[in-house]
Amino acid sequence: MHAVVRSISSDEFEIKSYVPDNPACFSLNLRIRIGSNETSGADDFEVCVCTPEWLTKYVWEPRWGRHLLIVREYDLSAIEKCIGDYVDGCTGTDWNSIAEKLGRVFAWEFEGYQG
């Protein structure tokens, strides 16, 4: 079983037409719908994408970097490829083992859930 990206979107804008004011200094949050190759369903994962320039300009205090993708400039196809390459490499015997691997770089909607 392996992970499959179903969609990448943003709650803030239409991702296909979005262009930041400064492609070398931006931050945005992306929602990634990811499922397994064996089902049609998907869970929500999120990641913050930003540039080193944005970090230098807006982050003053120490901060952890979990669920963060740092890119040199805004290039949607490169961002989608980076996300897709990581997701494609996530395999496991069941969805929970795959989601655990995905949760290392993306914020999973069910992380820490104890049902």
How do the helices and strands line up, and which of them pair or pack?
Elements: E1 3-9, E2 27-36, E3 43-50, H1 52-58, E4 68-70, H2 76-88, H3 95-102, E5 107-108
Plain-language structure description:
The chain has helices spanning 52-58, 76-88, 95-102; strands spanning 3-9, 27-36, 43-50, 68-70, 107-108. A hairpin with a 6-residue loop joins strand 2 and strand 3 (43-50). It has one domain (3-108). It is α+β, with helices and mostly antiparallel strands and 115 residues long. Helices cover 24% and strands 26% of the residues. It is globular.
Low-confidence stretches: none
Mean model confidence by pLDDT: 94
Overall SS class: alpha+beta
Question: How many β-strand stretches?
Answer: 5
Rg measurement, Å:
15 Å
Number of domain modules: 1
Determine the strand fraction and express it as a percent band. Answer: 25-35%
Element-level helix/strand string? EEEHEHHE
Largest sheet: 5 strands, mixed
Separate helix tally: 3
Helicity range: 10-25%
How far apart the termini lie comes to 23 Å
- Specify the overall morphology: globular
